[in-house]
Design brief:
The structure holds two protein chains of two kinds. Chain A is α+β, with helices and mostly antiparallel strands. Helices cover about 65% and strands about 15% of the residues of chain A. Chain A folds into four domains: about 180 residues, no CATH class; about 150 residues, no CATH class; about 220 residues, no CATH class; about 170 residues, no CATH class. Chain A is built from 28 helices and 21 strands. In chain A, helix 9 packs antiparallel against helix 26. The radius of gyration of chain A is 33 Å and the shape is elongated. In chain A, about 45% of the residues are buried. Classes of the chains: A alpha+beta, B mainly beta.
Amino acid sequence: MTRTALSALLSHWKRKPFQLLTFVLGLALATALWSGVQAINAEARSSYGRATDAVGGGAGEVIKAKNGGPMDAALYGALRRAGWRVSPIVEGWVSVEGGRVRLVGIDPFTAPQTAAAGAAIETGPSEFIAAPGRLLAAPATAARLRTSPDLPPVIDAPEIAPGIAFADIGVAQALLGLEGQLSRLIVVSDQTPALRSLNEISPDIERQAAGSAEDLARLTDSFHLNLTAFGLLSFAVGLFIVHGTVGLAFEQRRPVFRTLRTLGLPARRLIGLLVAELMVFALLAGIIGIGLGYLIAAALLPDVAATLRGLYGAPVEGQLTLRPIWWAAGLGIAILGTATAAGSSLWKIARMPILAPARPRAWAMASERALWAQGAAAIGLLAVALIAGTAGAGLVAGFLMLGALLIACALLLPLILAGALRLAQTAARQPLAQWFWADTRQQLPGLSLALMALLLALATNIGVGTMVSSFRLTFTGWLDQRLASELYVRAEDDAQAGRLLAYLTPRSEAVLPIWNVEIEIGGAPAELYGVADHPTYRENWPLLSALPDVWDRVADGSGALINEQLSRRDGYGPGDDVPLPGGALTVVGVYSDYGNPLAQVLISPEVLTARYPDVPRLNYGVRVSPDRADALADGLIRDVGLAEDNLTDQAALKAFSIDVFDRTFTVTGALNVLTLAVAGFAILTSLLTLATMRLPQLAPVWALGLTRARLARLELVRALVLATLTLVLAIPVGLLLAWVLLAVINVEAFGWRLPMHIFPRDWAILGALSLVAAGAASLWPAWRLARIAPSELIKVFANER
Amino acid sequence: MNARTLAYAVCAAMVICAGPVLPQGFSGLGQDAEGFAAATRGTEIVFPEDHAPHEDFRIEWWYVTANLVGEDGRDYGAQWTLFRTALVAGPDSGWQSPVVWLGHAALTTPEAHFVAERYGRGGVGQAGVSGEPFEAFIDEWRMAGPNLSDINIFAQGSDFSYDLQAVADRGYVLQGDQGFSVKSPSGEASHYYSQPYYQVSGTIRTPDGAQRVTGQAWLDREWFSSILTGGQPGWDWTALHLDSGDKVMAFQVRGADGGAFTGATWIAADGTATPLGSDALRLTPLRRTEVAGREVPTRWRVELAARGLDVEIAAVNPGAWMDLTVPYWEGPVRVTGSHQGVGYLEMTGYE
């Protein structure tokens, strides 16, 4: 009996292979996007964890300078001799192809037992310690390091976290220019009683809890949350598809269920068979989804890694390792998704009276009451969004608001569409038009899930698009202010710099030094620039907030300007002291610094050279009237012998900056497109399934004399009308989304707050795209309708069940 | 693999003369003296200069063993050792120094044996030695005083510490041929002198509490660049303070074939030291004790027929196992037989 029942149930899929395809593909797509995004996040997080473990032995405390800067290396001996069991670390960044790498110098004799220390030993003590030393790095990182000829030989050490290179501390000090200095001291876990207190040894150092993986995770949280939100959205859209398909498949099989039950199949066994069937499909879809997810993650990870490295200095490589946990999680999410999508259908079957009439149409018709319940839920969610928006703070509240808002709008969609269609029906005068609107209304429940998916995708697209475009517009305007110098030159060495200055001084309005060093503030990389006291800065620099005498205080060396990223990240505002190597300075102003992934501090060049006597003095900005810039550039190349590569004009620099900016949003854009594709697919499947069910509705109209071709055209128009209505509704939702992204999420994620701009032209393009998608999706069902055998339509009257 | 293994590789060379089995892959380390000076016969030993490190040699140590008696009348032993090894030849200064230092400290009671170990890189003030005023240190452990005849010795581990004052009223004893000590039939040798005349007083601390102690101590100074020949799996070394006032240093480097290369010095009560030929010494294990899963001889018969010495030496605590990166046995012994006294025994290479 069971076997017969099973073959009867499965025969449905054999007759409707497309439905099966829809089901599996929808679930696979949902699983793929979700698990792909999760894979990216997991990879990045595991990198952070390994990085921290590799350096600190996983736990414990460190001793650091109170001012956050480097310490005199002599402190190490003093501490050890006083009975402190500490291990020295020197850290910094080396720039190589594909982004900077964190270089960590360890003392293998005292370091806690870690992967790095282990690899150091395998290298051989003499090779690791004695000049030139060795670098140890994960293979992908090692490959990047080898592109730089100035570094010691690099050894592949797969056990080391990506994005980090280890060297002996002496070797690292030399590479980083930190001879005689230490970044911090790890307090080894088994301490013997110390003979002298820390304070006795030096008043400038203190014991702190070691930075943990959470520090990096906290820094990058916003970024990952962004990705997770996209993954979740895609998954939700995918579930709409599955829900629709499962619901349809169940409704269409009602006669089969009824027959099986009357033949004596117990309800429990029937449900069991259906669950088993669904689980098999879910597993199949899950496996496909994981495979797709892996491909998505592998394709996106290099960009994500580059962004993370640039934005936060997070040690991540663009290389994906396959973890068993994904398989489990991916399959789990597929099964969970199926259960969610099929739950209500199964419930209905379980409670179905044996002799219930088989009415496939019933599935497509939602009762008035359900519609109102949906509306109530939407209003509840709007209230949640409002509360999260006003009372909550931070990224989580922002995303909560975003999520509630989007779902509420999606739930409201059928209500609003129904209202709009009713209005249209009332306004219609012709019988055919009246029928058209009435029929569209009647079709709405069946299509509403797909339309909700479309709304979500369109709103996300508009929202994210508005954010990125607003950002870009502000950014370009800001670049014009910021890049005031007409030419930017770079000398090869001090001698050439001297010749450059001598040549430029009489021929230009001003030559402004652009000298900088890379430092670290709060454990993340930062740039420290010296800027001359010149009207170029006083007049153009885009200050967001400042003390009254801001430029005077920078010029006299008592003040520093910091960029908005640093201000937001570490909470420094005008009047606060920002810790810098060599002593803290007062923040006298905060400026916008869009597109720069790093924290940045501006101080007077005198202070910079006093603290870093060896700072390279090779970069200069040249003020000259724009019409003479080209001539001056030619002169520099001809008369001073400046290499063309070392001369950048404003336009080239702007192009480069915009390129950096665009790359930051590559991933966002890619996910955007994928989401829209899933939504388009949802419409197609909904229309296709409805098409077969709608014959009873169409047959009478056909019998009244409307041609099949006419009917097909009407079907096409109907899809376009619904898509247009959805688009119109998506625009305000998208703008709301953009506002949340700009004012809440973006500030948390990137440290910039931006004014919002509106881009109606983009909406037009998006609208055209979605109409094309909806049109294309309805084309096939319409074409099938136009070609349907008249006998099929006649059968409707013959077969009335 | 871990940090300790690096140290293992490094210090294997140092303790080698104490003869442990070298880990594979490093067995050549003791022999490869490239860039380093070799110990040569006829080199005059000069004080206080030779108390300080010899940077042109690969391996060197400052090695003190003390036989102590507590106020409770029981026997105790203390060991303080600082090894220096250079990975490659070069000056020991700055963070790029190729020198690695290794400290061992132990405190032995009749029932317990406490050990600790410290590693440090050279050139950065974590470990080092200077000749006069004398100071040898690694971390907070130190052996220091106005000169090497008047020193304070301190070390601590997680469960023990000692703080001893050691004063010697006589000069140093040159081992072997005027401080040139041959360690193998093929002629590998070291520079080697001792100070066996320290009178010691101080305090030891164990988990049971503090104890005032007095006694005598023996310092060994040795430096070389290459000493091991293949097939010498270990060695047994002993230094004895006899009640007659005579002192004895005796060692054998065991060959893989079961034979041994022996050496001994008889230091008469008047301070004259006489090196005895390579066949003068007979060392016979009498009883073995299972320690840390190995059979280690903890009672020996020591015979120097030429000097009428025929004694049994027995460990105060047979469990004096140095469970460190390179494990070995080292602890105080009691001397009975033709002579009475106390001493120290070191045995390596027992697997």
